[in-house]
UniProtKB/TrEMBL annotation:
Keywords: FAD, Flavoprotein. Residues 2-335 form the FAD-binding domain. Pfam families: FAD_binding_3 (PF01494), Rng_hyd_C (PF21274). Its cofactor is FAD. This is FAD-binding domain-containing protein. Gene3D superfamilies: 3.30.70.2450, 3.40.30.120, FAD/NAD(P)-binding domain. InterPro entries: FAD-bd, FAD/NAD-bd_sf, RIFMO-like. The keyword ATP-binding does not apply.
C-alpha cells in the first residue's frame, strides 16, 4: 500500500510530493493530463515561495529561468509595493511562467524519488479506518489503488474534494478580466500599469520575448469566461486603457478569467486532505494563488510525514487546517479588495483608488502590504504564553548570520527537520532526536532589529518560528525550547 497518493501534478501536488520524499514517504502523483500544459496561468513567483525553495537549496534554479521584478502592485495602485523591504532572502517577485515552474518542480520531485504518473484521472474514492481506496481511470480502463492518505491537489473542480464530501462554498463569477500572452513591437523592460475610468491594465515581460497583458475593462467586465477573446478586442482594450496599442502581435494565449471565489469548508476529511486550488479559488489579483498553494504544501508535508511515521503529537495534522484556512481567507479578502480597485468606475471609487495609492507611499503601510503579497504575513495564531516573543508563529525573515556557509538560516534547513539555532553564544542543552542544532552569531548590521535580543530560536521545517527565546540562562532556555518542541514532534 502506498503511503500517500496525490491527485494532480500542478505546482502544489508536485511540491508536496517532493516535501514528503524528504522524509522517505512513499508517494505517487497521478495526473489527468497525458502531457504538461504549455500555457502558464501564473507568471509571478513571490519572494515567499523563493524563500521556501531556498530552505531546500532550490531557489537558484528558478531564478536562473526567470526575471526578478523588484516591485509589485496592489489593485493596480500607482504607488508600487517595494519587495526590498520584506526581509526575504531573494527580495523580489520572479517573473516566470507556471509551465517552467511545473517542469522544474517535476524534475525535482522525480529526482528525490516521487512517481509522477500521467494520463491517470482520479474518479472516486472510499475511506476505511486505515486506508483510502482510489479509483483511477487511465486509457479507458479503471484500476483501484490503496493509499494510507490521499491529498487532492487537483484544482478548483477537485474530484478528491467532492468524493470526500468537503463543501466548497462561495460565489460564482460576476466579473471577468482578460489576458493576452503576446509579442509586442516594442518589448517592455519593466512592468507597466495604468488605471482610469475605463478600467485597469497591466503588462509585463514574462520571458522568451512574450508579454502578459491583463486588463479589466468596465465596458466588457460582464462578459462570460466562455466568450472568446479576439486579438482585435485586446488591441482595442489596450488602446482604450493605456492610450496606445503597444504593437501587439503573434498571440500565444488569449483568455478571460473570472472572480469566482470559494474556499473548502475544511481541509481534511478523515484520511483525505486538500491543498492549493482544490482548497481555495479567487480572482487572480497580485499573483497569489500558486504561491498560497505552495505554502499549503510546505505546511502539510512535514506534518503528514510525521503523522505517517508516528512522530506527530496530538493535533499536529489538524493544525494544517487551522493554520492554512485563515491564510487563504486573508488572501481572498485582499483579492476582493483589489478587484474593487481594478473595477473602479465612479468618481467615488476612483478617488478611493487614489487615496489608497497615497496611503501606500507611507513606508510602514507599503512594507506591510509588500509582506502580505510576498507571502510573509499570513495571519498567525497569537502565542498567548506569558512573555512569548513576538516572533513566535511568524515566518522566518530578516535574520542575517555571520557564517560563511549560511548567511541566513535557509541553507541549514535542506533536511526538512526542525532547526534549533543558538544565537547568544551559549549552547542550549536541548538536543532531541530529529532536531538539528547549530550555534551561529547574528550579523547585527544586517539583521532586522527584532532579532537582536534573541538567544535561541526553534524553526519548524516550513521555516515558521516555533519559539524564540531571549533568556541568557541555557537551562531555562532548554525548558522553554522543549515545550515548543513537543508541539512539533514526539
Ligand atoms: C489568469 C490567471 C493568472 C494567474 N496568475 C498567477 C500568478 O501570477 N501567481 C500565482 O501565484 N498564481 C496565479 N494564478 C493562480 C494559479 O494559476 C493557481 O493558483 C495554481 O495553478 C494552483 O496550483 P494547483 O497545483 O493547486 O492546481 P492546478 O495548477 O490547477 O493543478 C491541478 C492539476 O490537477 C490535475 N487534475 C484535475 N483533476 C484531476 C483528477 N481528477 N485526477 C488527476 N489529476 C487531476 C489537472 O490536470 C492539473 O494538472 C493565476 C490564475 C489565473 C487563472
Amino acid at each position: 500500500m502506498l503511503d500517500v497518493l496525490i491527485a494532480g501534478a500542478g505546482p502544489v501536488g508536485l511540491w508536496l510530493a517532493a516535501e514528503l520524499r524528504l522524509h522517505g514517504v512513499e508517494v505517487a502523483v497521478v495526473e489527468r493530463r497525458a502531457a504538461p500544459d504549455g500555457r502558464s496561468r501564473a507568471v509571478g513567483m513571490q519572494a515567499g515561495t523563493l524563500d521556501t525553495f531556498a530552505t531546500r537549496g532550490l531557489a537558484q534554479r528558478f531564478i536562473e529561468r526567470g526575471t526578478p521584478v523588484p516591485t509589485g502592485h496592489f489593485g493596480a495602485a500607482t504607488t508600487r509595493l517595494d519587495f526590498s523591504t520584506v526581509g526575504a532572502v531573494h527580495p523580489f517577485m520572479l517573473a516566470l511562467g507556471q509551465s517552467v515552474t511545473e517542469q522544474l518542480l517535476e524534475e525535482h520531485a522525480v529526482a528525490v524519488g516521487a512517481q509522477v504518473l500521467r494520463g491517470q484521472e482520479v474518479v472516486s474514492l472510499t475511506q476505511s479506518p486505515d486506508a483510502v481506496e482510489v479509483v483511477i481511470r487511465a486509457g479507458g480502463t479503471h484500476r483501484t489503488v490503496r493509499a494510507r492518505w490521499v491529498v487532492g491537489c487537483d484544482g478548483t473542480r477537485s474530484a478528491v474534494r467532492q468524493a470526500a464530501g468537503i463543501d466548497f462554498p462561495g460565489q460564482d463569477t460576476t466579473l471577468t478580466g482578460w489576458l493576452a500572452d503576446i509579442e509586442l513591437d516594442d518589448p517592455l523592460t519593466a512592468p507597466l500599469a495604468a488605471t482610469g475610468p475605463a478600467g485597469s491594465f497591466l503588462a509585463a515581460p514574462i520571458g522568451d520575448g512574450v508579454h502578459r497583458l491583463a486588463g479589466l475593462s468596465t465596458a466588457t467586465m460582464h462578459r462570460g469566461t466562455g466568450e472568446p477573446l479576439t486579438l482585435e478586442e485586446v488591441r482595442e482594450q489596450t488602446r482604450t486603457l493605456l492610450g496606445r496599442d503597444l504593437g501587439i502581435r503573434n498571440p500565444r494565449w488569449l483568455s478571460r478569467y473570472g472572480n469566482a471565489t470559494r474556499q473548502a469548508a475544511r481541509y481534511r476529511a478523515g484520511r483525505v486532505l486538500v491543498a492549493g486550488d482544490a482548497a481555495h479559488m479567487f480572482f487572480p489579483a497580485g499573483g497569489q494563488g500558486m504561491n498560497l498553494g505552495i505554502q499549503d504544501a510546505t505546511n502539510l508535508g512535514w506534518k503528514l510525514a510525521a503523522t505517517l511515521q508516528d512522530r506527530a503529537p496530538d493535533g499536529l495534522l489538524d493544525s494544517y487546517d487551522t493554520e492554512r484556512r485563515p491564510a487563504a481567507r486573508a488572501v481572498i479578502d485582499n483579492t476582493r479588495a483589489q478587484l474593487a480597485l481594478f473595477a473602479a468606475a465612479s468618481p467615488e471609487q476612483i478617488a478611493l483608488r487614489e487615496v489608497w495609492s497615497a496611503a501606500l507611499a507611507e513606508p510602514q503601510t507599503n512594507r506591510q502590504w509588500a509582506r502580505r503579497i510576498a507571502g510573509f504575513d499570513d495571519p498567525v495564531s497569537a502565542d498567548t504564553t506569558p512573555g512569548a516573543h513576538p516572533l513566535n508563529g511568524t515566518r522566518l525573515a530578516g535574520l542575517a548570520l555571520d557564517a560563511a556557509d549560511a548567511p541566513t538560516a535557509h541553507p541549514l534547513m535542506h533536511h526538512g527537520r526542525p532547526l534549533l539555532l543558538d544565537l547568544g553564544g551559549t549552547r542550549t542543552p536541548c538536543l532531541a532526536d530529529g532536531v538539528e542544532q547549530r550555534a551561529v552569531t547574528v550579523n547585527t548590521e544586517a539583521a532586522h532589529a527584532i532579532w537582536r535580543d534573541v538567544t535561541a530560536v526553534l524553526i519548524r521545517p516550513d521555516a515558521r518560528i516555533a519559539w524564540a527565546g531571549t533568556d541568557t540562562d541555557p537551562q531555562r532556555r532548554a525548558a522553554d525550547c522543549l515545550t515548543a518542541l513537543r508541539t512539533l514532534c514526539r
